Amino acid sequence: MDLEKLLADRLTPAFAAVAGGPVAPAVRRSAHADYQSDAALALARRLGRPPREIAAEVLGRAVLGDLCAAAEVSGPGFINLTVADQALGAAVAGLVGDPRLGVPRVAEPETVLIDYSAPNVAKEMHVGHLRSTIIGDATARLLGWRGHRVIRANHLGDWGTPFGMLIEHLLDLGEADGAAELSVGDLDSFYRTARAKFDADEGFRARSRLRVVALQSGDERTVRLWRLLVGRSEGYFLGVYQALDVTLTERDFQGESRYQPMLGPVVEELDRLGLLRDSDGAACVFPPGSVGRDGDPLPLIVRKRDGGYGYPATDLAALRYRTGELGATRLLYVVGLPQRRHFEMVFAVAASAGWLPGAARAEHVGFGSVLGADGRMLRSRAGAPVKLADLLDEAVARATALARRKNPGLDAAEVAEVGRAVGIGAVKYADLATDRHRDYVFDWDRMLSLDGNTAPYLQYAYARIRSLFRRAGADGLPAAVEAVRVPLADPAERALVFALLGFAPVVVEVERTLEFHQLAGHLHRVAATFSAFYERCPVLRAEGAVREGRLMLCGLTARVLRQGLDLLGIRTPERM
């Protein structure tokens, strides 16, 4: 039961009757009552009446007796609402019996395609891939849990001119030795050596260019070597995904190469639709509203003057395929904020071409950068981007040492499990708890802290509840949970109930906005509210109905924390 929505539904017809038309009641949680509406203040200007008078008339018309113990006008015209214990108890009892914790499956599921992670073949993943992978995976988890059909699209950089250089380097090493070097996993070294040869050796450079032609024309040997490069890289990527505990698999690789046969038809269709224009020999589309700093129209180049294709053509082909062939109606591109203009132009061209039909829409899920303590892009001491595998190894090592220090009673297997859950969880949560539009500073001490808005704090709250149930000799709630009375005598109990009831509205809102810091922030509020409840309200020392009711609240808190963290891709160890 969404009490906020229920109260708003009761106030809506009353406001409409007073105003003579629709009015949003603007119900929200308040420090002065359980909920508050300030709609009368805005309506007063429209009607030319005192806001307190309007608020009083609304309350006189609203049917609130079964929901509210008190409903009164406050201050300049606020409507303060205090929920009745009976209604509050019924709401939380509904959560206890609901495996989905009040979060319904969507009535009309969509096919949602999420484009995220997108590393480049023959290059190692680094910290620059962190946010796309983490945010994209949380998006896939949450939308999938809501009931949408989710398609994960890992748009690999697996095509283009660099592959002539890489294949020639592979041939120089010898196919067997080159494959062995790639299998070691040092992809960056392989790429750097090939690049150095390309820059220094004119003969190698010429052979590389010819090799690109051979690849594009489908030469059997060249294609086989290209597939070797792609396969070795994909194996490495899957290892990183497993370490990061994300849901991407080999089935989700959708490289740029997939769309190469579609590029010509895309340009032909744009031309047929009258959208294509020549600009200095390049085939361009000028999306409406796209202008440069000088005020001149800004072109999207879909075919270069030399006849080659760049990212815009590939992105247009991919979008056209995703809506036309896969039937996606919501396309999410989890890519850094610097690409905002590019995607605005691609989406505008796609809309003009009719490739976003009906309810279909494309969204750029942009994000900021991961910074070091100096406020610049996070880099290693050598000045190179931090390799993602190294960062994850360090996270697990730090968290494992923390687990040994904090709980010497854990055995080796438990220490390893806690170290991985806490270390990887800390990295993910630090990212997702930050407004994705903002940069954030990567800080080991802060993200691994057991205090504050961190994953370890939330994981510890969950483990604390599980420990409570072990000491109580109970694995779950009393068998007849419907007969358990929700305790509401103490303000801390009431505050915890409201925090638990707030989980479902937040999940539904984040489905729309993809602002995961809202979900993270709510989970932190649940954990902090539980901590205050636990300090004020004895659980195991209580007796009878009070003990059972408080145990029920503890169990429900654990479920909300576990489910919420799972949507963020974070594990909840039973012991810490």
UniProtKB/TrEMBL annotation:
UniProt feature coiled coil, ranges: none
Catalytic activity: tRNA(Arg) + L-arginine + ATP = L-arginyl-tRNA(Arg) + AMP + diphosphate
Entries under InterPro entries matching the protein: aa-tRNA-synth_I_CS, Arg-tRNA-ligase, Arg-tRNA-synth_N, Arg-tRNA-synth_N_sf, ArgRS_core, DALR_anticod-bd, Rossmann-like_a/b/a_fold, tRNAsynth_Ia_anticodon-bd
GO MF term set: arginine-tRNA ligase activity
All copies of domain Arginyl tRNA synthetase N-terminal, residue ranges: 1-83
EC class (word): ligase
Chain segments annotated as transmembrane: none
Pfam families: Arg_tRNA_synt_N, DALR_1, tRNA-synt_1d
EC number: 6.1.1.19
Chain ranges of the DALR anticodon binding domain: 458-576
Entry keywords, A to Z: Aminoacyl-tRNA synthetase, ATP-binding, Cytoplasm, Ligase, Nucleotide-binding, Protein biosynthesis
Subunit comment: Monomer.
Family membership: Belongs to the class-I aminoacyl-tRNA synthetase family.
HAMAP family in the record: Arg_tRNA_synth (MF_00123)
Protein name stated in the entry: Arginine--tRNA ligase
Species, as recorded: Micromonospora harpali
Gene name, Swiss-Prot/TrEMBL: argS
